[in-house]
């Protein structure tokens, strides 16, 4: 379906991460180079850290090109609701939908489903698909695929890192990929305001459950005080996860409208995607997220009690 299309409409999930952007951008970039009219849709903006990727310029928040597309390619999305407010329009073309996903909780909803929960990232599946299509991967596409794999494996620190993704990474390097260039753009190009915010956030670090859970928080006041924005909070959770003795790190960000953004990270002993699903979130066993309806204090209590339950034998709804 993809190989014969002249107009592709590529879609990824709300709050796109490196795998979502990198995989989608790489496929769109290569399709465009073959004369295909490719449009990438996401209801949220591409994070600044990934805007350097070839194909990122093809992202839009407009679904106008959907109806004229020959195929709809949904990437890195385990559940239709994560497609955002236009999910029903997208699903109305189900017979033309190609789903590419690697989440463990995926419920295949495409006319064609390329689903493999053993893959470290959706970028792995896109790379393998490109091989079957006979589309050579150039350096710009390699950067997107590497960004996808690198970010979803926690820079190859998470348990989902396997020989398959490392083999693909080696092949991307053989094609000319410079991993240091990608790492610099993603991890070493933060705004100054982000570091000021980080200093305030680290003052909120607190240990619970005998040090097995560490929480770190950002309030709306902190964002206003520092001039930082929500993108500047990405990866703050890793400072909680990286403490000795921690099994789960939790980041809580106060958002407008009585919402709290939760980011959960595990060292492997707790499947945090199962915890996130309790309140409508999702993700991976070692990295997941959700939105909590309530105050920061209420979200903190929910995280502590839910992680306590998981450590004691299993989360309770």
Automatic annotation (TrEMBL):
Lineage, broadest ranks: Bacteria, Candidatus Coatesiibacteriota
Any idea which GO molecular function terms this record carries? Answer: nucleic acid binding
The protein's organism comes out as Candidatus Coatesbacteria bacterium RBG_13_66_14
**What positions does the domain DHHA1 occupy?**
223-302
Query: Where does the DDH domain lie?
Result: 9-149
Can you say what this protein is called? Answer: DDH domain-containing protein
